[in-house]
Design a protein that fits this description.
The chain contains six helices and eight strands. The chain has helices at residues 2-14, 69-78, 90-98, 109-114, 128-137, 158-182, and strands at 24-29, 32-36, 50-54, 83-87, 103-104, 118-121, 143-146, 150-155. The chain has an eight-stranded mixed β-sheet, sandwiched between helices.
């Protein structure tokens, strides 16, 4: 399974959706999850850079797991997700800074069809506040943007969470460019 996480990590970096050492990826397997280690370069993941931790509660390996482990755990405990991708998509972050509250409404047909309104949530990196906000929001949406920070997308499989991540960024880029040209 770490190979799939590694493959998605490389795709995220190659497509500019994250800088190498930022963002994180996880996959749920029953009462456990595999999640990237803190400080890992997503385009150079090995089996040693992925940690298995508990889904229901904290555990000793949380100290080396991603700083967002608490957020992933809350999402898994509140949604039917089996995969989560957290990226620092530049257009999504920019749009969240330009529109600090509410939703980003996609203008492109794919964004409208696959995502609907994209919620903007608030909370500090790896905080309980962020974990609670995303757990609630992602129980009703496929993806959300954390204000000034990045995207979280869920899926039944890792590829689906990746596709929703790319769709959020595409929709935000289209909206940004459209809004820019309308001025």
């Amino acid at each position: 399974m770490w190979q799939d996480i590694s493959r998605i990590g490389k795709k995220l970096v190659q497509s500019g959706l994250v800088e190498s050492h930022f963002g994180n990826i996880s996959v749920r397997m029953g009462d456990k999850m595999l999640i990237t280690r803190s400080g890992s370069s997503l385009d150079e993941l090995t089996s040693e850079k992925v940690v298995e931790v508990e889904v229901r509660s904290s555990c000793a390996l949380d100290v080396i797991a991603s700083s967002e482990t608490v957020v992933h755990r809350a999402i898994y405990n509140s949604t039917p997700a089996f995969a989560i991708v957290h990226a620092h998509c530049p257009y999504a972050v920019t749009m969240s800074l330009l529109q600090a509250e509410g939703y980003i409404t996609p203008l492109d047909s794919e964004g409208k069809y696959f995502l609907g309104d994209i919620p903007i949530v608030h909370g500090g990196i790896g905080s309980g506040e962020l974990a609670d906000a995303l757990a609630v929001t992602l129980s009703a949406h496929k993806a959300a943007i954390v204000h000034g920070h990045g995207t979280f997308a869920i899926g039944r499989v890792l590829e689906e969470a990746y596709v929703f991540t790319t769709q959020v960024e595409h929709s935000c880029r289209i909206k940004y460019l459209y809004d820019l040209m309308r001025k």
